[in-house]
Every structure is written in C-alpha cells, then in structure tokens.
Amino acid sequence: MEGAKEIKRVAVLGAGTMGPGIAQIFAMGGHEVTMWTRSEATRERAEKNLRGSIETFVEEGLLPQDQAEAVYGRVAFRPTVEEAVLGADFIMETIVESKDAKIQLFREVDAFIGDEVILASNTSGLNVFELAPPRRLKQMVIAHWYAPPQLIPLVEVVKSGEAPDSHARTTVELLEKCGKTPVLMKKFIRGYIANRMQMCLNQEVFYLLDNDFCTPEDIDKAVKASFIPRAVVLGLCKRADFGGLDMTANNYKNKSYTPPPEVEMPATLARHVEKGELGLKSGRGFYDYTGVDKQALLAKRDKQLFEIFRIAKKFMDDPV
Predict the structure, then answer these.
(1) What are phi and psi of 318, to 5 degrees?
(2) What is the dotted CATH code of the domain comprising 194-317?
(3) How does DSSP classify residue 6?
(4) How far apart are CA 68 and CA 84, in angstroms?
(5) Domain 4-184 sits in which CATH superfamily?
(6) Residues facing 92 on adjacent strands
(7) Helix, strand, coil % (nearest 5) of the chain?
(8) Rounded to 5 degrees, what are φ and ψ at 54?
(9) Roughly what angle, to the nearest 10 degrees, separates helices 40-59 and 65-73?
(10) What DSSP designation does 309 have?
(11) Are 77 and 15 contacting, i.e. CB atoms less than 8 angstroms apart?
(12) In terms of pTM, does the model score above 0.90?
C-alpha cells in the first residue's frame, strides 16, 4: 500500500451509532463502501439514517443534489463479514465497545484478508492492539472518530507498534482526502487527546455540581461565553502562548488551581442514572426534555454544528 490513492474500496464493519456516518464520509470521498452488521434491524435503521444524512448535506450545500444518489449508491450492505471485506483495501471496524465482540470480529476478519490491507478500529476506550491476532498488528491502526462522525471533523490516528509509519500516513491521507481533520499521535494512550480533555472537564463539572457551587445552566453559560469559542480561534497551547507562558508558570507556582479529589462516581451523576435520567434519550438529564420533539432538536443541533464547524474550518485554514 503506497498511499491513499491506492485505496479504492473501504469496508465498514458495524452499522450502529458510528457506521453509517463513517460510510457516508468515505462514499463522499469517492470510495466504494461495503457495510456489514449482524442485525437486520440495525441494517434497516442504518440505511434510513444514511439517506437522511445525505439529504441533510444537500440541504446544507455540502453535497450537490445531482451527486446525492451516486454517494448513496456507493454504499452496499453485505450479509457476512467475508463478503464485506472481500476486495477491501481499508477496513474500518466500528462495532460495540466490547472486548469479546471485538476479539471475535478480528478473528473473523483475520480469516478473509491478505497482508496488504490496512485494518483500522474506531475504538474509544479499548486497547485493540491487545485484542487483535498478533500476526495482524503489522497492519493495524486506530482511527478514532467522534459522533456524529459525518459532522465532527476530528479523527485521531495512532498505529500499532508493529505497523509501519506508512500505514499511519496512508490513513491520514485517506481521511484528509475525505474532508476530515486527522491528528496523528506519536503513540497510543487510552482516551487519545479530545476524550482526555473532556474527562478532565467532566471531573471539574461534577465537582462543582456535587458541592453546589453552581447549576448545570451556569456551567454551560460560562463555558459558551468564554474559553470554548476562544479555543476555536486559538486552541489550548496557542492560547497559552498569547497569554504568556510565564503567566501559566506562575499559576502553577502560586497554586492558583487545586484539582478536585478523585471519586469513584460523582454523586450528581449517580443520582441521575439511578433515577433513569439519562439525558435526551430518556427525556430528562441535567435538562428536562419532556414534550420535546427529539428529532427536531437533533436536527437543530446538527444545523448549528454545521455552522460552527464552517467557522472553525475558516479559522483553521487561516490560523492566527
């Protein structure tokens, strides 16, 4: 495999939360995509979601109307893993975050692929390099997408220790060709970059809530009116440069911030979960969604994400 230009066919294994959006992006990049899922119900839902998302891209001016059917037509569902990976140059695993499920799938894939195929996983929290057949590690990378994958630009890429650097570069080139913003990491760490940042924020969020310093509404208002929009322009490291690294150093020296103590489970989170208040999907979480049209709310979210990522791309293309 000499580069992304050699990749013609992509197999997406798993058609749940992430699969359809990932398949759409590869199809929009001009690739033939084969998808597989064990469940007929999941397949039907994925086909519906895929078509709906393509229509949304047309409405947002991100895909010409006369190309919509061609993009949809590039995605074909296959009933078996063998048929899905047959002839694929790049395999993207997107199944549930279960060690046993991934081990089983990797064993199935192992029986049907050659040594030239790049085998990628979308795992968010597992070290799949410990789960795959050892002889396939020389072909493995992680390409970690964020939901919804057709909207969020970031994909974090890291190769196994046994895989050549060329596999990581090819994966990055492929993602860039498909319009994504890949970040190539030097080595694997659980949580990658963005999820680790979010977990740090979550730790502070629940400390503030558990100790009744403020409300969820206060937190959301504060971050949306301060460092989150600033980060769209400067990021985190450049923001420190602009503020002065001496100031950042002084904050450490002066103990300006003391991190909250670690807890096994934040009390606020536990209370919500115990009451079945799981967020939008259950009708209540930090906020009350009773009587809300969930599909309309998700559509509104997506349109706002389109808008903010257009702005973000503009700033990234012409950075400060």
Answers:
(1) -135, 70
(2) 1.10.1040.10
(3) G
(4) 23
(5) NAD(P)-binding Rossmann-like Domain (3.40.50.720)
(6) 12, 120
(7) 50, 15, 35
(8) -60, -40
(9) 160
(10) H
(11) yes
(12) yes
